[in-house]
Automatic annotation (TrEMBL):
Protein name: Glycosyltransferase 2-like domain-containing protein
Keywords: Membrane, Transmembrane, Transmembrane helix
InterPro entries assigned to the protein according to its UniProt record, in alphabetical order: Glyco_trans_2-like, Nucleotide-diphossugar_trans
Coiled-coil annotated residue ranges, if any: none
Organism: Rhinocladiella mackenziei CBS 650.93
Ranges for domain Glycosyltransferase 2-like: 226-493
Transmembrane regions listed in the UniProt entry: 50-76, 467-489, 501-521
Top-rank lineage group of the source organism: Eukaryota
Length: 622
């Protein structure tokens, strides 16, 4: 690995190291304590380091302003999401005539009847699994099978791992059980020990996506294949897919082009939150808020949203981005794929928030008592470390941004790529290559620009995720230590005034976060619960899933403690794992991927193992 690549990988760590140097130069905390302990006679006030203190003042105000803007944006997003979820899920349950009306105006492909336009959209749903309990997968598939579009549009891909000794048997059991419930259901087996790959969700999804592309790329309806990636325990409502279908058909009608849109739902932990330790629940509430803060009422050219666990991408966009990455840098698979699509479309990726929540389980273990309490916290920390390990995506984004060059250079590269693709691309047919390039050119235009407002928004989101939690923590710690010094050797009135100002800003930020939790999150949680209740009752699944609803009392003692303890949970499951991740990145980017434990429900179902021919085979070129 070259020094430049290593430096980009370690940007969060290097920035934190520079921040610590700045704090010492500006506040001289270590020097003051050293002199006070060993050489008290030398403890005299000297000239103030003007430049270092000016830089510190600017940066601490910048951090506190960002910390203030985040809860304001979160409140607005939660209010918008709640309103749209209620509107969407209070519509009649019969599938959208709107989508059919939109489909009538889509130009037909040569030799294709207009009446078949609405039926040519295929929802390829990837369900990755590694040593997951079959009950979890079965419950998720039963929810999908209850949807109105399941038998006509859902093509299920159970993405199993060769490293899982029971993976094939589990997949075959599920295929036998859900035969006839979907348009199609099959499984893929991701081989172990492929060169350049690391175990994890991204490499597994990548293998399944290759199977999807191989299956549909020669189909004339391949632009209508939408790939949804979800977790094994995710419960998606039918309105999620129906809303995506409406957006997809409208995009094709209005633009007359291949759809290049990333669809993202908000997430909600509403299944077993009442059964997990409080700090674990609060950490997941904050993780939910991180995704919810990017929710937008309508897509705009400057919209930037980062998916959390669940998202949908059209197959042409997957082909354009060259699929999912499989290296250690892609451990944050959802954010990484969004960045790949963003730069593959020259920063003009359309991102649409779907007002249908994805229901998730809080991480838990099967151990009871005090050992179980400790095990749950350790498991949540391991999950947080995996999330924060995704700060590698900052270096990836900077590297892709630096590759942006002038239009002339890009045109030259495109002509070379065109000649190479015409000479022979064995995996992808020539007509697919041509349509991809024409669609990209017509939709995104010939110009590439580094300095755009949307790029600024993108990197501000990355800064919020990978820098702000740790930088703000160190600034707060240093400010508290400096204030506690009885005889600081450096000080000035402006510095003291700024510390007082930032103290007020922290208080205002805390107040806004409390308002978000007490009012807006509770309304959002209630709207999500009601939407899922309504759909489960319609599907006849409510009675057996009634215990999988976590209700919240707005002013109960437990809820009030949740509101008060979020700074503690944020430090334990935000700042601490981020610090461990950025320090580890100085010598490695590899992390042992551990599957998060889920709650298990035993289902009274007889399963029969019958090896069949539903497996999608892919040969690994090793």
């Amino acid at each position: 690995m070259g020094f430049l690549r290593w430096s980009l990988r370690c940007i969060p760590g290097l920035s934190t190291f520079c921040l610590l140097i700045l704090l010492e130069c500006a506040l001289k905390i270590v020097q003051t304590e050293w002199l006070a302990f060993y050489y008290p006679p030398f403890l005299k006030r000297g000239p103030a380091p003007v430049f270092a203190q000016a830089l510190f003042i600017f940066y601490t105000i910048f951090l506190h302003v960002l910390a203030l803007i985040f809860p304001l944006r979160l409140i607005a997003s939660a209010w918008t999401a709640t309103k749209q979820i209620r509107i969407t899920h209070n519509r009649p349950t019969t599938f959208s005539r709107e989508a059919l009306n939109v489909a009538e105006n889509i130009p037909s492909q040569p030799g294709q009847d207009d009446s078949k336009q609405s039926s040519c959209v295929i929802m390829a749903i990837v369900v990755p699994s590694y040593k997951e309990d079959i009950e979890i997968l079965e419950t998720s598939l039963r929810v999908l099978a209850s949807h109105l579009l399941a038998k006509t549009s859902y093509d299920i891909f159970l993405a199993m791992e060769e490293r899982d000794p029971n993976g094939v048997n589990v997949a075959q059991n599920l295929i036998q059980l859900f035969s006839g419930s979907f348009r199609e259901i099959q499984f893929t087996v991701h081989p172990a020990h492929l060169p350049g790959e690391v175990p994890g969700k991204s490499s597994n999804v990548s293998w399944a996506a290759k199977a999807i592309e191989q299956k549909y790329v020669n189909n004339p309806d391949w632009p209508g294949v939408l790939i949804t990636v979800m977790d094994s325990d995710t419960h998606l409502l039918s309105q999620y897919f129906e809303t995506i279908l409406t957006h997809h058909l409208r995009n094709r009608r209005e633009r007359g082009l291949i759809d290049m849109t990333l669809y993202i739902p908000p997430i909600i932990f509403d299944r077993n939150a009442h059964l997990v330790p409080q700090l674990v629940r609060i950490a997941d509430l904050m993780w939910c808020g991180a995704g919810l803060s990017c929710y937008n009422k309508s897509s705009s050219p400057t919209t930037v949203a980062i998916p959390t666990a669940v998202y949908t991408v059209p197959l042409p966009l997957v082909c354009l981005a060259d699929g999912w990455d499989t290296g250690s840098e892609a451990i944050g698979e959802d954010m990484h794929m969004m960045l790949k699509c963003y730069f593959a479309t020259n920063g003009r990726l359309k991102i649409v928030s779907i007002p249908s929540p994805a229901s998730q389980c809080n991480i838990t273990t099967a151990t009871a008592g005090i050992r179980g309490w400790i095990a749950n916290h350790c498991a949540r920390y391991s999950q947080a470390l995996r999330h924060m390990w995704g700060c590698l995506d900052t270096g990836y984004a900077v590297r892709q941004w630096c590759k942006i060059r002038t239009a002339a250079a890009r045109s030259e590269d495109q002509s070379i790529e065109s000649e190479m693709s015409s000479s022979g691309n064995q995996r992808r047919p020539r007509h697919v290559e041509l349509r991809l390039k024409l669609s990209q050119y017509a939709l995104h235009g010939p110009n590439l620009q580094r300095f755009t407002y949307r790029n600024l928004v993108l990197f501000s989101r990355l800064f919020e995720a990978h820098f702000l939690p740790l930088h703000l923590f160190f600034v707060l710690l240093a400010s508290a230590m400096y204030t506690a010094l009885p005889y600081p050797i450096t000080s000035c009135r402006i510095l003291t005034a700024v510390m007082d100002l930032t103290g007020y800003l922290r208080g205002v930020s805390f107040a806004f976060m409390t308002i978000y939790f007490v009012i807006f999150y509770e309304r959002y949680h209630q709207a999500c619960i009601q939407a899922r209740e309504k759909e489960m009752k319609r599907a006849g699944l409510y009675e057996e899933m009634a215990h999988e609803f976590s209700y919240r009392g707005r002013f109960s003692l437990t809820t009030l403690l949740d509101y008060a303890m979020f700074p503690i949970a944020g430090t334990i499951y935000g700042s601490a794992p981020l610090l461990q991740a950025i320090v580890s990145h100085f010598w490695t980017e590899k992390l042992v991927y551990l599957v998060s434990a889920k709650p298990v429900k035993v289902l009274a179902t007889n399963l029969v193992v019958q090896p069949g021919s539903d497996r999608v085979e892919l040969r690994a070129d090793v």
